[in-house]
Automatic annotation (TrEMBL):
<keyword id="KW-0472">Membrane</keyword>
<keyword id="KW-0645">Protease</keyword>
<dbReference type="Pfam" id="PF02163">
    <property type="entry name" value="Peptidase_M50"/>
</dbReference>
<dbReference type="InterPro" id="IPR008915">
    <property type="entry name" value="Peptidase_M50"/>
</dbReference>
<keyword id="KW-1003">Cell membrane</keyword>
<feature type="transmembrane region" description="Helical">
    <location>
        <begin position="55"/>
        <end position="78"/>
    </location>
</feature>
<keyword id="KW-0862">Zinc</keyword>
<feature type="transmembrane region" description="Helical">
    <location>
        <begin position="130"/>
        <end position="152"/>
    </location>
</feature>
<keyword id="KW-0482">Metalloprotease</keyword>
<feature type="domain" description="Peptidase M50">
    <location>
        <begin position="139"/>
        <end position="178"/>
    </location>
</feature>
<comment type="similarity">
    <text>Belongs to the peptidase M50B family.</text>
</comment>
<feature type="transmembrane region" description="Helical">
    <location>
        <begin position="181"/>
        <end position="202"/>
    </location>
</feature>
<keyword id="KW-0812">Transmembrane</keyword>
<keyword id="KW-0479">Metal-binding</keyword>
<dbReference type="InterPro" id="IPR044537">
    <property type="entry name" value="Rip2-like"/>
</dbReference>
<dbReference type="InterPro" id="IPR052348">
    <property type="entry name" value="Metallopeptidase_M50B"/>
</dbReference>
<dbReference type="GO" id="GO:0008237">
    <property type="term" value="F:metallopeptidase activity"/>
</dbReference>
């Protein structure tokens, strides 16, 4: 029974903040698209707080769990929110707003989690403070991780779509063409380069450079600013 309780405890402190972060990230994309003129996500039920509508079983649960257990890079994905960019008012501006909405939501959730950890947690019953602290710590980490990772300027990530929206048309077209190969580029950079670097005696840990370092820095800044 003790092992089962420990398993349930571990699942709640990791799965709850991750599912909330992913669900609100995706819902924010859909809501932003609706506000910018495209109701595709709304009609398909994707502006929802029901995580089942957004979770990809393998990409959101199984793969991140395996990587976490193996001590590797936290990597995964949710079901993409359907957006018809041609229906957006001002398609280029709309693309930027819709793409930035997901990471923006994650930053907002990280800020809320820091505020709760600093100002509310000390007033909660002692017997649940440890559980709440782990949930809030993981919420801060997961939300900053999603925000930073998704703002890497490579399509199909949100940062790539923002980049396409702000670049002049000739350059935007060239960047947009990377969308089909973008995920392969990311996988090679995150998983293959570190292995290759280890064999060559080089530090090619792209995840640490581009994601983990900024996440740690942002976390420290939020705590210092919001105390």
């Amino acid at each position: 029974m003790g092992d089962l309780a420990g398993l349930v405890y571990g699942i709640t402190v990791w799965a709850l903040p991750l599912i909330l972060a992913v669900t609100l990230h995706e819902a924010a994309h859909g809501y932003a698209a609706l506000m910018m003129g495209d109701d595709t996500a709304s009609r398909m039920g994707r502006i929802s707080l029901n995580p089942i509508r957004h979770i990809d079983p393998f990409g959101t649960i199984i793969l991140p769990g395996l990587l976490l257990a193996l001590g590797g890079v936290m990597f995964g994905w949710a079901k993409p929110v359907p957006v018809n960019f041609a229906r957006l008012r001002s398609p280029r501006l709309g693309m930027i707003v819709v793409a930035a909405a997901g990471p923006g939501m994650n930053v907002a959730l990280a800020v809320i989690s820091v505020l709760l950890a600093i100002h509310l947690l000390p007033h909660m019953p002692r017997d649940i403070q440890g559980w709440l602290l782990l949930n809030l710590d993981n919420a801060i980490y997961f939300n900053l991780l999603l925000a930073v990772f998704n703002m890497i300027p490579i399509p199909p990530l949100d940062g790539g779509r923002v980049l396409v929206g702000v670049l002049p048309a000739p350059l935007a077209w060239r960047v947009a063409r990377l969308e089909k190969a973008g995920m392969i580029i990311l996988l090679l950079a995150l998983f293959v380069l570190p292995i290759l670097g280890g064999k060559l005696g080089l530090d090619l840990d792209v995840f640490r450079w581009l994601v983990q370092g900024p996440v740690d820095t942002l976390g420290r800044v939020l705590v210092e600013v919001l105390q």
